[in-house]
Amino acid sequence: MNSIVSIFSKNPKIKYIIVIIIAGIFLLYNNTDGVLTEKLNDNKSLIKKYEEFKTGGINKKIAFPKEIIEQVIDTAKSYIGTPNKIGGITRDSIDASGLVYISINKNSEIKIPRIAQEMARYGKIIINPKKLKRGDLVFFFDTYEVDRIITSVGIYLGDGKFINSSSNNGVSISEINDPYYWKEKFFYGTRIFK
Questions:
Q1: What is the per-residue pLDDT for 127?
Q2: What's the confidence (pLDDT) of residue 65?
Q3: What are the strands of the beta sheet with 161-166, ordered from one edge?
Q4: Residue 160 region, left (φ>0) first, then alpha (ψ -120 to 50), else beta?
Q5: Domain spanning 43-191, CATH architecture
Q6: Distance (Å, rounded) from C-alpha 122 to C-alpha 18?
Q7: Residue boundaries of the structural domains of the chain
Q8: Which of 81, 153, 74 lies closest to 113, judged by CA?
Q9: Residue 102 and residue 89: Cα distance in Å, rounded?
Q10: What DSSP string runs through 116-139?
Q11: For 94, which DSSP code?
C-alpha cells in the first residue's frame, strides 16, 4: 500500500491517467448499453426484458481455444437440413441454441449453457456486425414471443454469413444483413474463442 501512495506522490499525473482510464471504461460500457437499448426502438416490453437480462451479468469471461473453431463449425454444418423444433437437440430436430450447445460442447471440455440468453452473457460483446470474426456467436432478439430478450443464436462463419436453426428453414446458413429479417433482429455478437 505504501508503494502505491509513493507512486502517486512522486508522479501526480498517474492519478489523472487512472481517472481517465476508469472514465473511458465507464463511457464504453454506457455507450454499448445505449446502442443496445436504441436497437429496441422504444419498445417498453423489450427494454424491460433487456433490463432484466442485464441484472444477471454480461461480458462474463470465457475462453474456448481458437484451435477448435473449425471443428465447432463443421459440427454445426453437419446438421444442415435438420428441422427446427424448440427444445430439440437431436439430428431429428434441433433449435438454434441446441445447435450451438451441441457444436461447442462436443468439441470442448469447457461447457456453454444450453439456452441462448444464458450463452449471451459470455464473451466480449461486439455490437457492429462488420467487426465479427469467424466463430463468434451472434444473438438475436424478438424472433418469437417469449419472456426473455435473447431469442436466437448462431455461429458466425465470415463474409456476412452465420449458421443457425430457424422455424422456416431448419439448420441453414443465412446472411446477417438480410434486410427482410436478420438485420433488424441482430442484437450483438460475442467473442468466445481466444
A1: 94
A2: 94
A3: 124-126, 186-191, 137-141, 150-158, 161-166, 170-175
A4: left
A5: Alpha-Beta Complex (3.90)
A6: 27
A7: 1-39, 43-191
A8: 153
A9: 7
A10: HHHHTTBSEEE--GGG--TT-EEE
A11: B
Tens-digit pLDDT string for the chain (194 aa) = 555 555 555 666 665 555 455 544 443 444 777 888 888 988 999 999 999 999 999 989 999 999 999 999 999 999 999 999 999 999 999 999 999 999 999 999 999 999 999 999 999 999 999 999 999 999 999 998 899 999 999 999 999 999 999 999 999 999 999 999 999 999 999 999 98
Residues 6+ away with beta carbon under 8 Å from 116:
96, 97, 100, 139, 150, 151, 152, 153
The C-alpha cell that represents 182 in the structure block: 436478420
> Using only C-alpha atoms, what is the Rg of the chain?
19
CB 138 within 8 A of CB 155: yes
